[in-house]
UniProtKB/TrEMBL annotation:
Pfam families associated with the record: Met_synt_B12, S-methyl_trans
Sequence ranges assigned to domain Hcy-binding in this UniProt record: 1-125
Record protein name field: Methionine synthase I
Record key words, sorted: Cobalt, Metal-binding, Methyltransferase, S-adenosyl-L-methionine, Transferase, Zinc
InterPro entries referenced in this protein's UniProt entry, alphabetically: Cbl-bd_cap (IPR003759), HCY_dom (IPR003726), HCY_dom_sf (IPR036589), Met_Synthase/Corrinoid (IPR050554), Meth_synthase_dom (IPR036594), VitB12-dep_Met_synth_activ_dom (IPR004223), VitB12-dep_Met_synth_activ_sf (IPR037010)
Cofactor(s) required, per the database record: Zn(2+)
One GO BP: methylation
Source organism of the structure: Paenibacillus popilliae ATCC 14706
UniProt cross-references to PROSITE patterns, sorted A to Z: ADOMET_ACTIVATION, B12_BINDING_NTER, HCY
Domain B12-binding N-terminal: 148-210
Amino acid sequence: METTGQKLPFIIAGTIEPMGTTLAGQNIESFNISLEHLNPLSIGLNCATGPEFTRDHLRSFSALSRTAISCYPNAGLPDENGHYHESPKSLARKITTFAEQGWLNTAGGCCGTTPEHERKLPEALLYDTNDETLAEFVAAFRNRTVDKKVKTNDSPLEERLASYLVEGTKEGLIPDLTLALEKYSPLDMINGPLMKRMEEVGRLFNNNEMREVWGIPDPTEMTMKERFGARYQGIRVSFGYPACPNLEDQEPLFRLMHPEDIGVHLTEGFMMEPEASVTAIVFTHPQATYFNVDLALEGCPHTHN
């Protein structure tokens, strides 16, 4: 943003009309060339036509683009009364085919799509297909391995205790905790070796590194009181929070991401092991605010007890 000097991630979507060009007369190659120098997060096609007309353009676009690609077609072409007839199942099947070819990174629907279309599409993309359909997004996480740090008794007891706090591992914790309680009172242990490592945890929090990477850094004048009061841009919610209170919703997330590949497991009560593990959903929109799902659903005619 020129006014603030901030760099924000952005996406671009354009329409290819039935005649094969944009309204400005660009074909898909010209459309890509005119936009790629802006370095957007993604470029995509939306609206104008249904998935059949989008197919060839999307295939060509995927071979040209150096960014992520999105696709939000209409539910077919409208009839003379403005009605769209592409069913949720049919639209989901066609867009899933695009994903299986590796042509897109983000999918959705435009004109004529309904909540049922939007429900069926992620179901088809995430659950009704094989792992290859999830392609690069899930593979980026699934192929990662954990470099386990082997703790040795050669390091001081205090150093080992401090490392448990940051790394979130329980391996070796109980024996070391037993030794520590023979040497320290619980309060001295907290105020001593554990408090020193809490300074490192606080430093990571204060540095605001995550939001800076996403292009939404905190204002330099923001105080810690304002930060703890969630005055920053965006929200982060985890299962069990008022915004998504059902812990069992962890299960489909684990099916998608396979965190067991990095040593994180889900218990029968939908809690995570190791105990310091965290899952979260992050929204960076400027108007995103924390909310209570029970309050948000009050008065909704489709809500049942």
